[in-house]
Inverse folding.
């Protein structure tokens, strides 16, 4: 099933299959509740520490969650020594949300610009202020989310009510020209040149006293990186130097300095002189996690190019090209469409790249460009249905993929709110199908390629064999593989340090741990 | 609430507004911090205002930036240099904020205050502050600390100096690339305060670590350090420590590093002395001139003159000139453009013979370049060539280039060449100008683009200034006045504009005899836009002309215009009449 060697060659080093448990859900739908289009989650991203999680939605909002289980109990190590039962999985709570993008209209091109958040990327935290980049189709924004003291001022020199009453007398006296300000305060030409200050100052003046130490989270847009993309932005990615990031659209990749929003450098341009010659577009791009000069981007033809930014200013020539040629015998009308890569991710070690195309997940070793080190079939059962999928446009769905922090497993989404987790260590046969619901393992079904080990893990899960409810009734094939094309799980993210997955099913954010 | 005396009322408001909801008012108050401090007196400023500012540091970045700036010049308001240390705590906090520009300003202010502090105060207050920041939990504090070492170091006793050097060494190996970049940026400044003995050992080893950093962005900044450190070291030390590094950098894998080398290399030549320059730096520079990456060649080409000035003429002719020849036909227009903007400066270095023999052909080929930028860059530096080879040799090839640019289909190119016409005129002389360029200047007055017509009018004024009213009377005025009969009102308007510009240069007599009648005649134009422009021009002529003329000619015309059916014409006519009245008043 997962394209590995024969079962008996299994490497004893392969870790045991994980048993996934439901942890949390945010924005759960009640039965029969209709999903609002604007509430559908369109981006998920953990920050580097895993203490924060951000989601973006089609309504242009960004919602932040923070981890509670570590901080709330103080130091976890102390607790363990005290032999308290420790909740072993990350637990998050809603932190704040803000409107990142608004719908716009480009009058020059007569184009509506959706507010939908395409990608979110966390930046370096500083002074407990959180920083993140969010983008829609055209504009990238740099946000700072910070706790601000709620100020309550007492002890003013002037009673605000009194200040109003003083107006007439002040303006007729020595104070000089004044102007009323919209907030009712007033400002003066303070420096009268002949005004003399006594050496000890005026004792009657005093500074305002600030009372109240309550805090609230405030999100502030620090910079807007606009007008650099003619096509829709599909990716943004931070560089390990903490200073630059890239943004990629269908035909170009631009390099930005976080501090400079009015200029960017075009580093990749695949736009042909004549648009009729266009055969390939950029679908996703990401910086190497540690090498500041290495960048990978994927294309609609199923290839991944590795760029070395040191070689030249305009990276028209890739330093490495990863692609797998399908045998010409199996070519069909759909071959090129399903080869299109929808997402790529570097592993934390920087040595592996995970790519997702319509049918498979592929894991590449950057030292081997001839073929992937592993291929995991995600949608093979849909192959006979490609014609239908093409007709209802599902074949163009862009599924994301993710790697676990330890690099041992990979995950990606599918239809019917399912997602799949594969073990990617040589010899591992772990291949799980989970459902984004409170009972993720209920879709675990026996399939011929699975091993005893994963079966044994199955037996511990209570199977619910009763018929599934109305919405999920369309097409479940003999193997229990289902394809409800309206409920697709496109976005998911793996916690950077623990076995915990956050995934989006329409407007709900489900979290699982193992 | 306290009762405030009326004279204090504005200051009281200023103080209250330090905490106003409206950021504009808070900013305003912070900008007037010195006024507040004077009103409070030195002691209360120290004991109340400064602590107040230290506490209220979660304001918007704009306010914090203003605060950082104001505090830098606050020493007089806290009671002079002996109390300068009270200013350090609020600035220390500002050194840790997330916004780079606020931190930079706070560091700048701290340096300014530190430079005035007494030596023992520095040891008591400033050095501990630097150490605290350098050990900060967040990278922002550590980044800021790097910019303060050069102030803290020189007054510190020996044991502290040792500590500061070792802290700086640690900052250069910080986990965060931002900190390493800050350390690399400030290394030159810090090194300048370090004793020579330590410079050669500790600082050089810090520097070598930075040059091998795996972040390109850090290595880039280390290149900048090369020149700064090179100037501090003895030539022989520079040769042993810096030279190998820079030669390595010039062959770095990253084009951005090579780009930096290309920009900096000439600065090192003096530091290492003539022989290593010949043996190592010239070959390195030649490699950069022939680099694969256009950006690197652009940087190298831009420094060709500065580099040649340091070399002997033979070295320049033997090694650099062949590269320059190649670059003049480089595939990248930007390289040629960079070369064109500096190549003229090579002429004095090479001397007349070499210039005519070798440089002139390059120069002429650039003058025929297909890209207007390249040609413009050559023409902009015309005065430099003129000094060496004289205009006669040039004029033949120059003229076609100018004519072509003057008729370029991009108006920005035409605009650029118009800007250079006065320079050309002064270099080429009246004779040449009359023959060849006069017609062009007139032609621009009837350009399709407003900016060009506008610039053309200005150009006529500058030419009149250059060659004098008499010449202008013969060569400009008649041609300009002819055009007032253009059937298109926009062109007639350009002429009116030109007249208003020329009048002050030409003086009262010519204006009165030649220009004024034309303007007056235009007041009968059928287009209102012309008529109100006539009113504007007449207004501008009032101060130039004799009062009797104003009364006899201008005023009647304006009175007539002030009764025009068009509202705009009436408006500008009445404005002009007011101006006439004002001139009358003093007399």
């Amino acid at each position: 099933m997962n394209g590995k060697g024969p079962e008996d060659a299994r490497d004893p080093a392969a870790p045991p299959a994980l048993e996934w448990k439901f942890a949390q859900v945010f924005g759960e739908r009640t039965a029969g509740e209709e999903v609002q289009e604007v509430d559908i989650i369109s981006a998920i991203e953990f920050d580097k520490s895993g203490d924060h999680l951000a989601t973006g939605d089609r309504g242009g909002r960004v919602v932040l969650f923070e981890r509670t289980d570590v901080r709330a109990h103080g130091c976890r190590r102390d607790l363990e020594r005290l032999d308290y039962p420790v909740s072993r999985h990350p637990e998050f709570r809603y932190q704040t949300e803000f409107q990142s993008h608004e719908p716009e209209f480009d009058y020059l091109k007569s184009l509506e610009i959706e507010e939908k958040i395409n990608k979110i990327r966390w930046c370096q935290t500083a002074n407990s202020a959180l920083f993140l980049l969010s983008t829609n189709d055209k504009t990238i924004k740099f946000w700072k989310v910070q706790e601000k003291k709620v100020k309550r001022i007492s002890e003013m020199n002037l009673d605000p009510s009194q200040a109003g009453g003083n107006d007439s007398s002040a303006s007729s006296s020595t104070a000089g020209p004044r102007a009323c300000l919209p907030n009712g305060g007033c400002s003066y030409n303070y420096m009268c040149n002949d005004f003399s200050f006594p050496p000890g100052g005026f004792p009657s003046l005093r500074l305002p006293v600030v009372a109240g130490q309550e805090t609230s989270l405030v999100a502030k847009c620090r910079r807007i990186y606009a007008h650099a993309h003619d096509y829709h932005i599909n990716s943004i990615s931070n560089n390990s130097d903490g200073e630059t990031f890239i943004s990629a659209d269908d035909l170009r990749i631009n390099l930005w300095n976080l501090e400079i929003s009015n200029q960017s450098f075009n580093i990749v341009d695949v736009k042909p002189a004549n648009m009729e010659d266009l055969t390939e577009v950029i679908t996703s791009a990401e910086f190497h996690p540690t090498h500041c000069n290495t960048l990978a981007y994927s294309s609609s033809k199923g290839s991944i190019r590795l760029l070395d930014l040191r070689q030249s200013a305009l990276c028209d020539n890739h330093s490495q090209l990863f692609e797998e040629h399908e045998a010409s015998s199996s070519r069909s009308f759909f071959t090129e469409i399903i080869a299109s890569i929808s997402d790529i991710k570097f592993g934390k070690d920087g040595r592996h790249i995970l790519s997702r195309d319509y049918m498979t997940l592929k894991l590449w070793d950057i030292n081997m460009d001839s073929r992937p080190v592993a291929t995991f079939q995600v949608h093979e059962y849909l192959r006979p249905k490609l014609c239908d999928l093409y007709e209802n446009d599902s074949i163009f769905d862009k599924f994301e993929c993710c790697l676990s922090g330890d690099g041992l497993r990979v995950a990606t989404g599918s239809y019917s709110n399912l997602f799949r987790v594969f073990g990617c260590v040589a010899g591992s046969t772990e291949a799980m199908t989970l459902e984004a619901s409170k009972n993720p393992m209920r879709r675990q079904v026996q399939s011929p390629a699975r091993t005893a080990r994963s079966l044994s893990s199955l037996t511990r899960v209570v199977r619910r064999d009763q018929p599934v409810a109305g919405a999920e009734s369309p097409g479940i094939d003999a193997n229990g593989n289902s394809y409800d094309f309206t409920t697709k799980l496109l976005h998911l993210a793996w916690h950077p340090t623990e076995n915990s997955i956050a995934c989006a099913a329409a407007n709900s954010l489900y979290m699982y741990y193992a | 609430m306290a009762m405030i005396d009326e004279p204090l009322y504005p200051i009281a408001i200023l103080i209250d507004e330090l905490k106003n909801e409206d950021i504009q008012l808070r900013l305003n108050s912070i900008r007037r911090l010195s006024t507040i401090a004077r009103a409070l007196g030195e002691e209360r400023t120290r004991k109340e205002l400064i602590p107040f500012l230290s506490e209220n540091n979660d304001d918007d970045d704009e306010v914090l930036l203003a605060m950082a700036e104001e505090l830098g010049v606050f020493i007089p308001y806290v009671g002079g240099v002996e109390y300068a240390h009270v200013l350090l705590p609020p600035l220390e906090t500002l050194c840790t904020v997330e916004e780079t520009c606020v931190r930079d300003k706070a560091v700048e202010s701290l340096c300014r205050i530190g430079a005035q502090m007494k030596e023992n105060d520095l040891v008591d207050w400033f050095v501990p502050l630097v150490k605290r920041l350098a050990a900060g939990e967040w990278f922002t504090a550590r980044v800021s600390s790097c910019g303060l070492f050069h102030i803290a170091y020189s007054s510190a006793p020996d044991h502290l100096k040792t500590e500061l050097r070792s802290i700086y060494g640690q900052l250069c190996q910080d986990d965060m690339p931002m900190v390493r970049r800050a350390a690399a940026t400030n290394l030159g400044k810090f090194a300048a305060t370090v004793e020579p003995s330590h410079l050669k050992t500790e600082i050089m080893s810090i520097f070598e670590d930075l040059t091998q950093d795996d972040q390109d962005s850090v290595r880039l900044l280390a290149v900048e350090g090369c020149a700064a450190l090179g100037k501090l070291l003895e030539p022989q030390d520079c040769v042993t420590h810096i030279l190998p590094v820079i030669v390595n950098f010039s062959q770095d894998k990253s084009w951005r590093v090579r780009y930096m080398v290309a920009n900096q290399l000439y600065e090192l030549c003096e530091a290492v002395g003539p022989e290593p320059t010949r043996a190592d730096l010239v070959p390195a520079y030649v490699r950069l001139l022939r680099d694969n990456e256009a950006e690197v060649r652009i940087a190298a080409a831009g420094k060709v003159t500065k580099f040649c000035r340091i070399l002997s003429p033979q070295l320049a002719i033997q090694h650099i000139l062949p590269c320059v020849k190649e670059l003049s036909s480089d595939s990248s227009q930007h390289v040629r453009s960079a070369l064109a903007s500096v190549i003229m400066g090579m002429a004095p270095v090479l001397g007349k013979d070499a210039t005519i023999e070798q440089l002139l052909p390059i120069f002429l080929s650039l003058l025929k370049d297909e890209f207007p930028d390249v040609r413009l860059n050559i023409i902009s530096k015309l005065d430099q060539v003129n000094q060496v080879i004289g205009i006669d040799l040039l004029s033949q090839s120059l003229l076609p280039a100018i004519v072509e640019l003057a008729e370029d289909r991009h108006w920005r190119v035409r605009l650029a060449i118009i800007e250079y016409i006065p320079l050309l005129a002064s270099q080429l002389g009246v004779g040449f100008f009359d023959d060849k360029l006069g017609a062009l200047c007139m032609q621009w007055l009837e350009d399709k683009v407003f900016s060009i017509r506008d610039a053309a009018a200005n150009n006529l004024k500058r030419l009149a200034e250059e060659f004098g009213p008499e010449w202008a009377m013969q060569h400009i005025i008649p041609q300009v006045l002819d055009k007032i009969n253009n059937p298109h009102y926009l062109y007639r308007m350009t002429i009116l504009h030109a007249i208003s510009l020329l009048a002050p240069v030409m003086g009262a007599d010519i204006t009165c005899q030649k220009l004024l009648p034309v303007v007056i005649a235009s007041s009968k134009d059928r287009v209102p836009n012309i008529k109100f422009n006539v009113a504007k021009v007449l207004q501008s002529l009032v101060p130039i002309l004799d009062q009797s003329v104003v009364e006899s000619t201008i005023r009647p015309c304006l009175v007539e215009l002030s009764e025009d059916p068009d509202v705009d014409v009436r408006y500008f006519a009445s404005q002009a009449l007011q101006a006439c009245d004002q001139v009358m008043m003093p007399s």
About this structure: Residues 1-10, 72-77, 163-193, 446-478 of chain A have pLDDT under 50 and may be disordered. Chain A touches chain B through 61 residues (CB under 8 Å). DSSP finds five helices and 34 strands in chain A.
